[in-house]
Amino acid sequence: MEYHNPVLLKESVDGLDVKPDGIYVDVTFGGGGHSREILKRLGPDGKLFAFDQDKDALENKIDDKRFTLINENFRFVKRFLRFYGVKQVDGILGDFGVSSHQFNEAERGFSTRFDAKLDMRMNQGSGLSAYEVINEYDEERLKKLFYEYADLKNAPKLARTIVTERKNNPIETSEQLNDLLKPLLFKGKENKILAQIYQAIRIEVNQEIEVLKEFLMQTEEILKPGGRLSLISYHSLEDRLVKRYIRSGLFEGEPEKDMYGNVSVPFKKVGGLVVPTKEEIEKNNRARSAKLRIAKKL
Predict the structure, then answer these.
(1) Which biological processes are named by the entry's GO terms (predicted)?
(2) pLDDT, tens digit, 9 for 90 and up, residues 125-150
């Protein structure tokens, strides 16, 4: 089963500063590339827990007594670590991209390249799919979605066109959606903008922003003092949340100061922003928008 080459593999695992006897979490297992690299650096007493809500990822399970794969969304990271008797860990890695496997499996509906039913669920057992978003959201909600998650200036026109079309015919497949929207997009940039539209729908279907916030808010409690966060984002909304949380422990506003003007923050950033090299992007085009941020729990 094809999964993408792990992005920023060495840099992200280096960022964890792996201790041989430590406990680590890979919250986005996918094809297991990052997990395998962590296991290489762990000693016989180390432990690695990995999360992935996609049942397809279970086929990549690693046969290693130090490794546990949990088929759940990482928004529940604290709850499931507790279930395994773990209260605190030495490091957490997250790679928030969609896997090549999910893009390349036509029936999953993630890609603009295939004609497939509108789906886009990372957890195939969850209720909301792309079909419901496109056929049931009202015009205002669709417009907001295209503004916020795809940064599209013509969001009102896109939303209005979808709502008008579905009155007569439900929009059931990616080909129907592409054919409907392409005439509204800039000539020569249709595929790029369609990819942004699909990204916006995918973020909504999988509640990716809410999930990321819930996850980040648990990391302060889960990490031991000195523990590391190593997080790879692929679009500006995610990266902004990660950056702000590392900086202040908040998603908006500024942390409160004490009477001496000092602020208490949970993390200290380690190094600067890390992005892929030209060589990595040439080998793996999906790495082009990746941004890695590393932090240490104070």
Answers:
(1) rRNA base methylation
(2) 778 999 999 999 999 999 999 999 99
Element holding 231 (H helix, E strand): strand 223-233
For residue 168, give Cα distances in angstroms to 108, 161, 175, 183, 230.
25, 12, 17, 19, 48
- pTM for the full model? 0.92
Q: Which helix (H) or strand (E) element contains residue 91?
A: strand 89-95
Domains of the chain (ranges, CATH numbers): 9-100+208-297 (3.40.50.150), 127-205 (1.10.150.170)
The residue type of 188 is: G
52 in a labelled binding site: yes
The answer to whether the annotation marks 32 as part of a ligand binding site is: yes
Ligand-binding annotation for 33, yes or no, is: yes
Helix (H, G, I), strand (E, B), or coil: what is residue 243? helix
Helix (H) / strand (E) containing 280: helix 278-283
* CA 117 – CA 200 distance, rounded (Å): 17
